[in-house]
């Protein structure tokens, strides 16, 4: 097995054996979504219009909450220092961890999304659209989460710092994601989806290098 | 520094903080005087020698403060991005100091640009805040500045903080143009272009003259403030190092 796959398997297996945390992130996502009608009122038309935006904000918040799980434990117990001796580069390791983190945090949210879509009264077409944009857009959020997590890994009480650092950088994902998911907006006919995909690809290219650099800086 | 006499010579000589302190001392007064003179000229031009706009009336004069600050908001980030490359590639000690000193200045210029823009927007657009492309991306820029300052302040080890902030600054430098593009795109998506554009393409010289003078004045103000802030940061690090040494010596004596 290649070191890259071994890394991926390791992260997935650790999460499977410790359990719990996937459920927490997914539960948080559902709660944020389900609480929103209490804030804006149970008007069905309004909820159907706001639905995609609410789901995107809930996904953004849930993924930000999970940032600390990316590198912190591995940094604190010295695993990251040991991994720097691995036969593959730290950038590749970060990329493997990024994929594992996306599978563990973002994918469950996407699986739950149809449930929220029912709560918001989105029709089948709108739900599929929303799922597609989340599938294409959330990797960019995970990529920025990796940068934020790596930057704050050496700060004892990282807490809210990482989200504060990367939230402004996530603006394009939110704009293109919601535009592509909302039927009726002029940009929803493909352009927004393509921009979203382009942004995700760019973020995935930058993130492993920036995060690996930050991890090296933090360990020095 | 005879190893590298050309090109980097000047920069590597400045790498020694003591050299920089000595070299920069002479610059503060001239820069401050030039800024003061330009401000005097610019304010005179703005208030007495320029006409009111036929559409905007007297509020056009807010632009003479707004535009220079908006320009400096971006210049500051560009300087921080260049300094970050200096930090990561050459580990130039002065680059770190320059980046750290520029961040609060950039945040302040961005905030002033937003506030003046909003004050101008009230009589012109009828609202303090419009989700206009430029205003929105400037707001995002302010958040990025504040995030950078927060990261500086949450690490005790300033060397490590400098390198981490440099990574963040460069990621921001790649991302800010995309944010700008996406916000513009989003703005045209949600509201058709109904907003008055300031000035228009053909600005009369009487408006252009105070605008350029004030831009130069603010730029010189920035240069003077930046040098002072860099010197303060160097002195602060020295005091910090002395206190550590002192504390260590006390520990040995006991």
Describe this structure in words.
Chain A has 220 residues and is an all-alpha fold. The mean pLDDT of chain A is 88. The radius of gyration of chain A is 18 Å and the shape is elongated. Chain A has helices at residues 3-18, 21-40, 44-65, 72-76, 79-83, 90-119, 124-151, 161-166, 171-181, 191-219. In chain A, helix 3 (44-65) packs antiparallel against helix 6 (90-119) and helix 3 (44-65) packs parallel to helix 7 (124-151). Helices cover 80% and strands 0% of the residues of chain B. Chain B has 7 helices and no strands. Chain B has helices spanning 9-14, 17-49, 63-90, 93-125, 133-153, 158-190, 205-253. In chain B, helix 4 (93-125) runs parallel beside helix 6 (158-190) and helix 5 (133-153) runs antiparallel to helix 6 (158-190). The longest helix of chain B is centred in the last third of the chain and has 49 residues, at 205-253. Chain B is globular and about 75 Å long. Chain A binds chain B through residues 147, 151-152, 154-155, 161, 164-169, 171-172, 175-176, 179, 185-187, 195, 199, 202, 206, 210, 213-214, 217-218, 220, and chain B through 88, 140, 143-144, 146-148, 150-151, 154-155, 160, 163-164, 167-168, 170-172, 174-175, 178-179, 181-183, 185-186, 189.
| Number of H- or I-type helical stretches of chain B | 7
Report the sheet with the most strands of chain B, covering strand number, pairing sense and barrel closure.
none
What would you call the quaternary organization? heterodimer
Q: Can you count the helices of chain A? A: 10
Gyration radius of chain A, rounded: 18 Å
Fraction of residues in helix of chain A: over 70%
- Using only CA atoms, what is the Rg of chain B? 22 Å
H/E series of chain A, N to C? HHHHHHHHHH
% residues in beta strands of chain B: under 5%
Q: Rough shape of chain A?
A: elongated
- Unreliable stretches of chain A: none
Contiguous low-pLDDT stretches of chain B (5 residues minimum) are 1-6, 192-196
Q: What is the terminal separation of chain A in angstroms?
A: 31 Å
């Amino acid at each position: 097995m290649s070191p890259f796959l071994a890394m991926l398997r390791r992260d997935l297996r650790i999460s499977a054996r410790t359990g719990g945390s996937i459920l927490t992130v997914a539960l948080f996502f559902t709660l944020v979504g389900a609480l929103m009608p209490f804030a804006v009122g149970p008007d069905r038309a309004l909820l159907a219009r706001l639905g995609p935006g609410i789901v995107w904000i809930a996904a953004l918040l849930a993924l930000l909450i999970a940032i600390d799980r990316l590198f912190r434990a591995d940094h604190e117990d010295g695993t990251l220092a040991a991994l720097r001796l691995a036969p593959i580069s730290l950038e590749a390791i970060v990329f493997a961890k990024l994929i594992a983190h996306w599978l563990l945090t973002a994918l469950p949210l996407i699986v739950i999304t149809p449930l929220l879509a029912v709560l918001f009264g989105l029709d089948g077409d709108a739900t599929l659209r929303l799922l597609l944009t989340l599938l294409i857009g959330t990797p960019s959020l995970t990529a920025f989460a990796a940068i934020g997590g790596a930057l704050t890994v050496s700060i004892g009480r990282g807490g809210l710092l990482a989200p504060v650092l990367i939230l402004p950088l996530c603006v394009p994902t939110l704009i293109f994601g919601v535009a592509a998911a909302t039927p009726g907006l002029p940009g929803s006919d493909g352009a927004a989806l393509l921009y979203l995909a382009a942004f995700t690809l760019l973020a995935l290219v930058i993130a492993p290098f920036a995060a690996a650099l930050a991890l090296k800086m933090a360990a020095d | 520094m005879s190893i590298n006499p050309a090109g980097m010579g000047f920069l590597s000589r400045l790498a020694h903080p003591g050299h920089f302190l000595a070299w920069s001392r002479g610059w503060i007064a001239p820069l401050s005087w030039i800024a003061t003179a330009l401000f005097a000229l610019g304010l005179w031009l703005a208030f007495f020698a320029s006409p009111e706009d036929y559409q905007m009336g007297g509020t056009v004069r807010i632009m003479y403060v707004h535009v220079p600050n908006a320009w400096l908001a971006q210049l500051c980030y560009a300087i921080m991005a260049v300094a970050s490359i200096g930090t990561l590639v050459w580990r130039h000690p002065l680059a770190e100091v320059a980046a750290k000193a520029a961040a609060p200045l950039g945040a302040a210029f961005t905030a002033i640009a937003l506030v003046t823009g909003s004050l101008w927007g009230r009589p012109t657009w009828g609202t303090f805040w419009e989700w206009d492309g430029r205003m929105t991306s400037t707001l995002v820029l302010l958040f990025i500045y504040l995030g950078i300052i927060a990261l500086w302040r949450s690490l005790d080890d300033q060397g490590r903080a400098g390198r981490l902030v440099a990574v963040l600054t460069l990621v921001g430098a790649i991302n800010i143009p995309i944010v700008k593009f996406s916000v513009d795109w989003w703005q045209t998506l949600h509201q058709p272009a109904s907003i008055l554009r300031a000035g228009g393409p053909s600005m009369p010289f009487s408006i252009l003259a105070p605008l350029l003078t004030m831009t130069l004045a603010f730029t010189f103000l920035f240069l003077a403030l930046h040098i002072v802030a860099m010197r303060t940061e160097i002195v602060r690090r020295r005091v910090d190092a002395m206190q550590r040494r002192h504390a260590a010596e006390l520990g040995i004596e006991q």
